[in-house]
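Sample 3 of the quickstart, ligand magnesium ion:
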Amino acid sequence: MQRLFLRNEIHGTVHLYIGQEAVSVGVCSALQDDDWVAATYRGHGAALARGMRPEALAAELMGRSTGACGGRAGSMNIVDLEHGLIGCFGIVGGSIAAATGAGMSAAREGRVAVAFFGDGAANQGYFHECLNFAQVMRLPVVYVCENNGYGEFTPTDAVTAGGDIAARAATLGMPAQKVDGNDLEAVSTAARAAVANARAASGPAFIEAMTYRHVGHSKSDPGAYRPEGELDKWLERDPLSVVRARLDEKQAAEAERVVEERIERAVETALAAPYPEAAMTRAREYAP
Ligand SMILES: Cc1ncc(C[n+]2csc(CCOP(=O)(O)OP(=O)(O)O)c2C)c(N)n1
Ligand SMILES: [Mg+2]
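Result:
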């Protein structure tokens, strides 16, 4: 997607998820098909982890009519109800509010709602209001903070009083775990416990996954504000390498081959798909 963006195939902007993959995959592995998920503008990982076809995701990012939302949502606002993705949100903290609302119906239906959001969102009003409400109402919501160390170009520590986001949730009385977000197994173990807690109707749970985005915030941000050596340190703990090291070589090579082919095919199909009918044509149809 980064290469396609640089080739001008993705219009507007794109916020890459490279480096954070283990968080959404680990959490979604603990969910059932009918659970709800709300994610951020960096929600491509969550979409795939929920089971969206790579073709539908690639086409949506490129604004093509075969995309998950007919090419009209683009990368920041993807919705896929068939896979329980109630939305990706461009508003920081929006996913927290949406998942909390979904939690109100989920409670009656035996479902669980999950909110993915960043460390920056933990300083939004939504965060405090929704977590308090969910705990008081005992809603089955799992809050997953993807702490990647930065909100845009600002280090999390510089803007986060107390410095410990999971501790904020613990203060409200919900189970809160801080996990290695680059370790798929650690995330999925934490997620299973959190989801089980929520599904048993005993209320919300919180996970703070410590991770890192390998590239800049969005578009062409080269991440020049990061201290020297920081990226290298995190690259050594790339979530894909951590998983790969636990597989045997044959298994790993086969998995890589399958994934690469699948992505290649998805991109080719998306590039061949038409753009949606122009918005203006549509507007004229409805004009009196
Ligand atoms: C309510 C709101 N305020 C500000 C912005 C501008 N903005 C977009 S992304 C971002 C940083 C959010 O950082 P974080 O929550 O840590 O998520 P990350 O991008 O690191 O995944 C900001 C401030 C916005 N989109 N919405
Ligand atoms: Mg962040």
